[in-house]
Amino acid sequence: MINPIVxxxxxxxxxxxxxxxxxxxARKDNFVVFVNNTLPGQKVRALxxxxxxxxxxxxxLKILRDSPHVVDSLCKHFPVCGGCSTQNLDxxxxxxxKKKQVEDLxxxxxxxxxxxxxxxxxxxxxxxxxxxxxxxxxxxxYVPESEKEREPSNFALGLHAxxxxxxxxxxxxxxIQTKIANEILTTIKELTKDLEPYNIREHTGFLRxxxxxxxxNTNEIMVNIVTSRDDPELLSPIxxxxxxxxxxxxxxxxxxxxxxxxxxxxxxxxxxxGKEYIIEKLGDYEFMxxxxxFFQTNTKQAEKLYDIILEESQLTGSxxxxxxxxxxxxxxxxxxxxxxxVYGFELVTSAVQDAMQNAIHNKVKNAxxxxxxxxxxxxxxxxxxxxxxxxxxxxxxxxxxxxTKTIEDILEKSPKRIVYVSCNPASQARDVALLxxxxxxxxxxxxxxxxxxxxxxxxxxxLIRK
Length: 466
Ligand SMILES: C[S@@+](CC[C@H](N)C(=O)[O-])C[C@H]1O[C@@H](n2cnc3c(N)ncnc32)[C@H](O)[C@@H]1O
What we know:
The protein has 466 residues and is of the alpha/beta class. Helices cover 24% and strands 30% of the residues. The chain has helices at 91-109, 179-192, 232-245, 299-313, 330-336, 349-361, 377-380, 382-385, 404-413, 425-437; strands at 10-14, 17-18, 24-28, 31-35, 43-51, 55-65, 116-117, 132-138, 156-160, 168-170, 207-214, 221-227, 249-256, 268-274, 277-282, 285-290, 320-324, 341-346, 367-371, 392-395, 417-422, 440-448, 458-465. The protein has an eight-stranded mixed beta sheet with strand order 7-22-23-21-20-17-18-19, with helices on both faces. α1 runs parallel beside α10.
């Protein structure tokens, strides 16, 4: 039978669940249709806009019946911003869906079925939880459909509109960052409105990004203003006003980048006020975090995540632990009290320096850090090559997951346990399948909701050597 679903077909669909990534999943005659911006339990009329081999993609035209799990959304930028795309779904249901997604990725995509999945560790705080947000300046404002009568402004500070690399949706209040971060954001917008924002098409203009970091356990605040050139005369008065209005700002830095890509890492940095780092506390440890260093963005959930990593590492005090992709060394230090020695490995030089400083600052003597790219670090760095083999390897890679060379290196080191932490369970499931094809067995998955109202889910996979 020829499948009747083609591009342009209108269908009535019951949304069964949310797929990983946040799209609604429906079925028409056993053919899967992913529907944008829908919730489980909704019945919608939808228009197919893309047909693939085994599935189709559709956009909703009309809600025929609402979901029993629907709630009011808090944010006035919803759903245009695209960031917190499930904020109109009851939080309990968000967490249920995240568990199903993780399970599904492992069973269906990775073909692994003999493991347990714990219930998702929910967040106590579902708003104001992010300790860091980054906003972009632009000369091209994105005007939402509902305001299309008005002209776009040639000054915007906010977030990229979904799918737009060139246009910025003005954001005045983002409910997942803290109240003070929102006040700082609107103050910066007011203070910079007469300066020239960056034009990403022509690569002209001065102001590029603002990053605001508010440490949840110490309340120290860092503001990082990213510009295309060094111009202290323009930035010093802004810095002075900010520290007068917000005395809890302990660090204002200016990162300068001439790169064309829209990233906030600078080629060099000027400290405009205070220190070049802020201090955040996780458990018993204090961490120095500089502007370019990765640090978990939900401090409270990170504490729960690290407790899980510690439990799954099953340390007795005699183990050698490798912490791959260690950032500023937070997992390394967290585990150090329970291990003989922890070695951390990380690409970003400033993060490795922070990790070293953090070990000294916390009087941790059994942790050491190596800088370098893990794709070749164990092959090229003679010191790293000669280390004692690990009993436990913790990995926490970026979204893309592990390079095959890193998987080979882990297999070669043959630790008794692997604790794989990931913000992308899809790439994690792929990598875990490769490890399980060799000498490892997946025992348990322990998802943690670090980012309520978004489709993201953090997941800890616990593997043992067979
Ligand atoms: C998800 S973060 C984990 C950080 C840390 N485990 C934590 O909990 O704070 C991933 C880290 O991997 C680092 N990284 C990315 N690619 C890398 C590579 N090829 N080799 C080594 N480190 C890398 C990034 O700089 C980042 O610090």
